[in-house]
Design goal:
By secondary structure, the chain is mainly beta. The chain has four domains: about 200 residues, ABC-type transport auxiliary lipoprotein component (Rossmann fold), CATH 3.40.50.10610; about 70 residues; about 110 residues, Transthyretin/hydroxyisourate hydrolase domain (Immunoglobulin-like, Sandwich); about 100 residues, no CATH class. The strands form seven sheets. Strands 1, 2, 3, 4, 5, 6, 7, 8 and 9 form a nine-stranded mixed beta sheet that branches. β30 and β31 form a beta hairpin. α2 crosses α3. The longest helix has 27 residues. The two termini are about 60 Å apart.
Amino acid sequence: MKGTITLQRLMILPILALTLLLAACFGKVDRVVTNYYVLDYQSSTERQELKQDVSNGKSLQVMNSRINRTYNRNQIVAKENFYRVRFMSNDLWANRLSDAIPNIITQRLRTYNIFSNVSRDSGQFDPDYYLETNVLNIEKLEDKDPRAYLRIEFVLRDSTSENVVLTHRNERYYPLTDDSVVYLIQVFNNLIMEETNTFAAMCIMHFAGRLIKKPGIDFQDPLTAPEQYIYQQLEDQEANQVYGELFLSTKAPITNEMLYRVEALDELNTKVSEHVGAFNTPLYLIPGKYRVITGYNDDIRMIMNVFPQQRTVVERNWCELKVRVLDQTQSKVRQIYDIWIQNEDDYGYTKVGTDFSLSDDQHGIEENLWILPPGNYMITLGGYSWSDLKDFTTVCLKKGDSHTLTVVVDPSSSSGNIMVGAGVLSDDLEVGTIKFHKGIIHANVNLTSDNTIDKNDPSYSLSLFGTLDNTIDHDFRPFHLNMRSIYDVGANFAKDADFRINPDSYSLKNVFLMYPFGKQRKLLNNFAFYIRGDLNTHFWDEYTQFPDKKNYIKYNTDGKEIERLMDQEDIRA
């Protein structure tokens, strides 16, 4: 019985220990809070010049708004580009927009006293006019410079004939200098009220018998305060440009920022302004005609049209080339090289540029990606000219090509030429690419025998030597780890001699990088904190052999005796 109880207690103890361990591992889990937002009337956006002392005597019923199906939901909508949206799951509208938007519009029109009666419910009277509002877009545009975007339409309709009396349609952007959702809702609220102000001014002019003319026309009669307001708003609408996107992409994957230039052109293709874009990142531009300039020497030029709310993707009519230099162990070698392009009209080549290849010790950097026009190219090593015909290779690049030229060299060559071979290899071979683990084993066996002294009793010796070289390279931003271990070990066997292990050397080199800044920091994205630790040791004990037996005493560095032995043939070194 005692044995059974003791066994049960022993089984309970590990369970309790595991429970305590799990309780300690799992910290406090924060519950995701759902936030609700409302559109509220703000009197601070009222315009005094639009308030009327006497109404026009007509009644108005404000109908429920028609909301585009994409936005007719509780979630606030964020648009990541022109065609992809995201719904904020934890930030919701407290009320339906189809009811919330006409409510604040009704309050604004009542304040201006344009109509004798403005109501959301027509149960007590027959209205003279109906106001319909259509919300086509109400969203947050998420890009490098976030903005709020509203596209809304006001339609004033006669209740008897159901004819459209007046319409107002506009789209507005507003920069979001604050990332909070509270500020986003405030901007939405203000944009709706500003468009309501413009519609109210148009109603005042319509019922006063005044025509609404295009901005820029000289007016003979003095303008009233509502007219001055509406014409100012119309001028602002023309200045409020809708943007388009220009997109250049590389076929080869890159992490470093690569820039290109864009020139805005007028009708005569004359440069009027200049912009700078980055490959693989959309560039927001005002719709129009542009000249795109890229290439290592700015020798690739294209004229493109950017359209409103559309992405213009530039066709790759250039070529891409990376140069990777390796030694015969497939380790990267830092080597200067020059690129030359073959002349079309005469014999010879013209120099394009110079660069250095990367070595295995250069972490967090990738080979330079050359953007080049189609043509025949020569690559020379060591600073040689194309006419020297030494250490060179050629490659033909066609429109849209993206290749990595692999050059194998022997830096220790004494012949004067270091290039062993070169060519564009298949990407499936992964030659010279960074692998998580790379290992090399070198082995050398040497057997000798000698019978010159005694024909019937030859002497012999056997030497074994090996090197184990292992490298681990792992990039997991914001960290990068590189470890390399080299172990040299050898053994010697000889007749009438002791077995010896020599050499016995182990070295471990560790490099750890931490990148505190992300890619969005253009100037500091390659800045990193550097930690390095090296280890040099051996695995086998070393002994010194005595020709005769010896007595010895060993002392430490402080002069204290630590060992005393008699009649010893060797001593541990």
